[in-house]
Write a structure and sequence with these properties.
The protein has 247 residues and is α/β, with parallel strands linked by helices. Helix content is 28%, strand content 24%.
């Protein structure tokens, strides 16, 4: 059987989506961010192997016959549907502060956010606010799109900040592993001041546990201002300022 790969545009690769082959669901990706897809399967089975061009270890090898063999032919139609839901919709305000919290492949929706802010040209939208990304991964080799983020920082140094939390390689001053909430704790007073503004929007995508860690940071800060953090977070949610998509 011939090998076949389908290249997906950056705009599609940055979105969570479901892949459908032959009209039936094949795989739900959640917040994966593949750069391309390799199709195959034995005995007529439809399968897909999802790969990131920045981490070839995820992509299998030429010896992976089950992933490589398939009945798809060049020109066959593949239907991609999505994204779905309303949690990861950017605010329309071009002056907003957008705080993005991601672990691993949870970076997917924020890559599309950041492209709109700093790479794409829109007549009706020119970002003048602050985009602040916190990205947590286990190792440096797991960092996706680092070069893109470097270019964004060069283009808009006053409008983009990025902080990495590499849990197996970094520690804080107390010697604790550097998880995303650990990195955020280094900026906790600044973050709390931003959260008190009505044009700050928080988006979280990735591992479920990080939200509890962020709650731990904010409880005492809010208390100093006579605010119950959990009540305040409910208020942020009602105003679409606290958006969570975790797994």
């Amino acid at each position: 059987m011939p090998r076949l790969s389908l290249t997906v545009t950056d705009a599609v690769a940055a979105m969570p989506f479901a892949l459908r082959l032959g009209g039936s669901p094949a795989l739900r990706l959640g917040s994966q961010s593949p750069s391309w897809l390799r199709f195959g399967g034995r005995d007529g089975a439809r399968k897909a192997l999802f790969c990131s061009t920045e981490d070839t270890r995820r992509c299998g090898s030429d010896d992976d016959a089950e992933a490589e063999e398939g009945d798809l032919q060049p020109g066959d139609n593949v239907q991609i549907t999505g994204p779905v839901g309303k949690e990861m919709l950017m605010p329309k305000d071009p002056n907003a502060t957008i705080i993005m919290l991601a672990t691993g492949t949870g970076i997917a929706p924020f890559r599309s956010f950041l492209w709109k802010m700093f790479f794409e040209k829109h007549d009706e939208y020119k970002f003048k606010g602050l985009g602040w990304l916190f990205l947590g991964v286990p190792t440096s080799s797991s960092l996706l799109y680092k070069e893109e983020f470097r270019k964004m920082k060069e283009r808009a140094p006053e409008n983009f900040r990025v902080d990495y939390a590499i849990s197996r390689e970094q520690t804080n001053a107390a010697g604790e592993r550097m998880y995303i909430q650990t990195r955020m704790a280094e900026y906790k007073e600044e973050l709390w001041e931003l959260l008190k503004k009505d044009n700050t929007y928080v988006y979280m995508c990735g591992l479920k546990g990080m939200e509890n860690g962020i709650d731990d940071i904010m409880v005492s800060l809010a208390e100093k201002d006579g605010i119950d953090w959990f009540d305040y977070k409910k208020q942020l949610k009602r105003g679409d300022q606290w958006n969570v998509e975790v797994y």
